Amino acid sequence: MPNPSTNGKGTAALTAFIAGMAVLLAASYSVKATDGAAFCSSCHAMNEAAWTHKQSVHKQFDCNECHTPAALGAKLPFKARTGLKDIVANMSKIPDLIHSSAEMKNVIQANCRRCHLGSTMSVAMDVKPYCTDCHRTVPHNRLTPIDKRKAADA
Fold first, then answer.
1. Where are the domains of the chain?
2. What superfamily in CATH does domain 34-153 come from?
3. Is the entire prediction scored with pTM above 0.85?
4. CA 100 to CA 95: how far, in whole Å?
5. Residue among 123, 98, 101 nearest 112 (CA)
6. Are 139 and 52 spatial neighbours (Cβ–Cβ below 8 Å)?
7. 88 torsion bin: left (phi>0), alpha (psi -120 to 50), beta (else)
8. Contact present, 95 and 47 (Cβ < 8 Å)
9. What is the C-alpha to C-alpha distance for residues 54 and 154, in angstroms, rounded to an integer?
10. From the first residue on, what is the mean pLDDT of each consecutive set of 10 residues in the chain (154 residues)?
């Protein structure tokens, strides 16, 4: 005859395992669902960025492939921290545009270098601090005057 105390431990362990898997699946889905332009452009301040990204050579990439660290251990806390900051900013006032912080610029720079390492080997990377200082139209087309953009049509 099975020992009732052993049976209860097995049920508790199985329940904890299933609950843990459910949490991991929900977290994984949430991370992926909040990576792309559909989520990011749900805030008024990101409409222009989403529209210009859709016109760029990087349109096949999710926003957070450039705007968060590549390593998962660094990505999750960075994404949580910057996302919370953006939510608070959007709830307290409605910004017309969210500018990248120095920390965000460093993350974007690291991702530019990570993806384009082969093509930047012979480039003097010490001329300007960030790739986007010279490549302003990648991927958000900042050289086109706002009154000439068609973000409202997006």
1. 34-153
2. Di-heme elbow motif domain (1.10.3820.10)
3. no
4. 13
5. 123
6. yes
7. alpha
8. no
9. 9
10. 62 92 89 87 80 85 92 91 85 73 92 88 82 78 56 36
